[in-house]
Amino acid sequence: MERVMGIEPTLVAWEATVLPLNYTRARGDENSRVTKSLIVMALPQESRGLLEQAGAEVLYTGVGKVNAAASLARRLAELRCSGKAAVGVVNLGTAGSRSVRAHTLVACNRFAQRDMDVSGLGFARGVTPFDPAPALLEFPPLFTHLPQLTCSTADSFATHLHEVGGDVVDMEAFALARVCVGERVPFACAKYVTDGADSDSAAHWEAALDAAARSFAALYASLAEAA
To answer: CA-to-CA distance for 224 and 11, rounded, in angstroms?
Structure first.
């Protein structure tokens, strides 16, 4: 498979070329139509309206992998059917972590699905049987000034009762990344760590939402300046 190399760390260069490092890249004429990024988040509570105030187009998918995949696939189909240019997708959202300090903004460019378990048929945990895409989706970084981490996605809000993998955990990113692979659309992701994926996760997540929204607004502003 072709590995994307030499990507400049700017929004325009990223949107024009990026697909997963470990997946076949789309033809150049397809990617050249990309002109604007679609910001994708799970919930309006994570943005507090600040992104819309900054002029961002935001798609709120709802919580979990099914809602995320269905909402993004539908929006991309709507754009395609309307004749509009393809978009780059940027996922902004909150995450838990047992290794990264809370109130840290990080980039994620690797994505795994921690609750996919078909080990009974002999498949490694995280592998979707007979799916041509790899279990670990890896993309060239857009947010090069942030740490590049692995996001582990599952349909569970991680607490001390859950096993977690990767550097940060969420409930949507892998699904969004997989849709972008299938649609040959560039994808990038940044997560604001709100909690320790522990017994206090719920309270810490809710308390950190205002700070997360401000961080996302600042990050979006930096993208707009670089475009």
So the answer is: 8
What mean pLDDT is predicted for residues 151-161?
Answer: 83
CATH number of 11-226: 3.40.50.1580
Q: Return the SS3 of 71.
A: helix
Distance CA 153, CA 39 (A): 18
Q: What is the DSSP letter of 127?
A: P
Query: What's the DSSP call for residue 3?
Result: P
Burial zone of 56 (CB within 10 Å; 0-12 exposed, 13-18 middle, 19+ buried): buried
To the nearest whole percent, how much of the chain has pLDDT over 90?
A: 53
Q: Which residue ranges make up each domain of the chain?
A: 11-226
Q: Mind listing the pLDDT tens digit for each residue in 188-204?
A: 999 999 988 788 888 99
Number of other residues whose CB lies within 10 A of the CB of residue 21: 20
SS3 30: helix
